[in-house]
Each structure stands twice: as structure tokens, then as C-alpha cells.
Amino acid sequence: MVDLSNYPYPSYESSKAAGGILAAVIGISMIAWIFQSIQIRFTPRRPLILLLVSHLTVFVHLVLRAALSTENRNSRAGFTATSFLIVIGMRAIIIANYDFLTQVGNLKKWMTRAIAIGPVLVAVTSAILMAPANTSSYSADTRDRSFRLRQASSVMVLILTVAFYPIWFATKAMKHMTKLAIILLIISSISCLFVSIYLVITSVDVYYVGSNDQEFWFYVFQFTPIAIALLTWTILHPKRTLEPKPEPPSSPDESMKPISINI
């Protein structure tokens, strides 16, 4: 029989030192990200903003871990805030991975729209499911529903991360990528896949309780992959990994004009 008396709250004592140090690391990465993004005038806009949101939400999550007492963290408001921030931070990286594909090569309009909109809808839906999952977790009568909603949300994220690879292959975007861009997407996507598998495992009651006994499990299996992805994006910023798309000729006639040479 699984002891769910403390569900959904963690039973460990958060390390304020660890939270503060890691918040500083993500904060430095965020400053470097903003500085490099300003240099290229936040173009392309969507992936740069998505990664800024991810940096910011993960940074605030860690600050709250370092600042909140165990009592405040294990309140409804504290738990909801910290959970929501890490949920948004991870999903923003996944969407940025997809959006990066639309920034290379010349995809058809329908394909660009599908890649830009589809992952957002799935990610947002999975995040929305976490709201009733958390609400249902506070009552013993609705805990089963809470775990079912948590599992549905986690499976959606896992499907989204796995689907990235066949979509990447189908777009043939790799042909138009630099080596650094390929390395960036490989590291970022694998990091997200690692977290999504962990979330599916911990959506089962026995593993959820076990993972909340020690803060170690959060830092190793959830925070570390996210931090690796964010730091990789900062180091391999699109300003050095994303080549500008060639501008099409202003008109078909102009591109067909013969070149005259004066002798």
C-alpha cells in the first residue's frame, strides 16, 4: 500500500544552498542569452523568446526553492507556483526545438504552420491538464483522478518529444543546418526526452512518492537535463548556429534578367 498522506507535497527538506547556487548558474546563462539575443535584435523572434521564458521560469523556480521555507513550499500556493514554473520551463524548450526547424531551409507554408502550431497546442494542453491534476491531489477521494490526469499530461509530453525526431527527418532540415546547429538540437532534444521519460515514470503513485523522498531525484532527473539544454542553447546561440535564410528575388522577372557587361 502506497503512503499518500503527504501527496502531492515533497517530503524532503530543500537545500537552500543548492537552490541558490543553481539559480545563479541559470541567471548567468539567462543574462548571456539576453545579451546575445539583443546583438541579433531578437531575430528569429519565436525561439529566442521561448528560451528566454524557459530561462526565466527555471530561474524563478530555483529562487523560490532557495527562499521558501518548507512550510511555505508545501502550501497550495507555494506548490502550485513552483510546479507551474518548471512545467512551463521544460515545455518552452520542447517548442523551441520544433520552432528551430522552421528557421532553416525553405519549408512549405503548411508544414511551417503545422510545426509552429501543433507542438504548442499539445504542450499547452498537457500543461492545462496539470491544473486539475494538482487540484484533485488535495482530497483522498480524487487522488486517483489526479494521477490519471498527471499520467495523461506526461504521456502527451513524451509523445511530443519522441515525435520530434521523425518530424526533423521528414523536413530534411538537417541538410540546411550547420554542424553546431545539429549538435544543439541533439543535446536539447535528448535532454527533453530524458525529462519526459522521468515524468511518465513518476506519474505512477509508487514512483511519485519515492521520487519525492529525496531532493536528489529532482536535481538529477529533472533539473540537470533542463539545465544542460538551456546552457547548450546559450553556448550554441542561434546567432552562431543559425544561418540567415537567402532572400528570394523581388520578382520573377528580375531574377530572369540577363546580366549586361559593358566593354
From TrEMBL:
Residues 242-263 are annotated as: Disordered. Keywords: Membrane, Transmembrane, Transmembrane helix. It comes from the Eukaryota. The chain crosses the membrane at residues 17-35, 47-67, 79-98, 110-131, 151-168, 180-201, 216-236. Coiled coil: none annotated. The keyword Membrane applies. This is Uncharacterized protein. It comes from Rotaria socialis.
